[in-house]
């Protein structure tokens, strides 16, 4: 069996979108997806993209993906990578694909002198939490995620 991790190309737009939908189903959040394949393609394959994706193929079949972007740490004074989505299809799990995708991003961090690789995980996702601990990830329990979206975003933008 062979694993290849490669940069997503424009021909992969529908595959990336399919992975996003499958991940949303797994996370019980499909009702929150309002992205479109066209929107994902436009973001990933713009002349100067701000978001990137890597595809994992197992024996030539699409097995998983990582979708990420650069962030910045003022405390470290350097960029890092924020992993927005990591997903491996159920039939391909326990083959080291998720770890290989994370290793690929860690290698990018080292090669580019980036300060860190970080991501969020749902607190009920015990298999993922166990996996992340096994590779040395540390929970940032002292931080609470904050978000403004929808009407709240509109209200904030228009506040005087």
Task: Give an overview in words.
With 160 residues, the chain is α+β, with helices and mostly antiparallel strands. Helix content is 35%, strand content 24%. It has helices at residues 13-26, 37-44, 97-112, 126-134, 150-158, and strands at 3-7, 52-58, 61-73, 78-88, 117-119. It has a five-stranded mixed sheet with strand order 1-2-3-4-5. A hairpin with a 2-residue loop joins strand 2 (52-58) and strand 3 (61-73). Helix 1 (13-26) packs across helix 2. The chain is globular, with a radius of gyration of 17 Å.
Strands ordered across the widest β-sheet: 1-2-3-4-5
Shape: globular
Give the biggest beta sheet: 5 strands, mixed
Structural class: alpha+beta
Number of helices: 5
Low-confidence stretches: none
Helix fraction bin: 25-40%
Give helix and strand order, one letter per element, not per position.
EHHEEEHEHH
Average pLDDT score: 96
Strand content: 15-25%
Number of beta-strand segments: 5
Q: Which descriptors apply to this entry?
A:
single chain, 160 residues, alpha+beta, globular
Write the layout of secondary structure elements.
Layout: E1 3-7, H1 13-26, H2 37-44, E2 52-58, E3 61-73, E4 78-88, H3 97-112, E5 117-119, H4 126-134, H5 150-158
Parallel strand pairs: 4-5
Antiparallel strand pairs: 1-2, 2-3, 3-4
Helix pairs in contact: 1-2
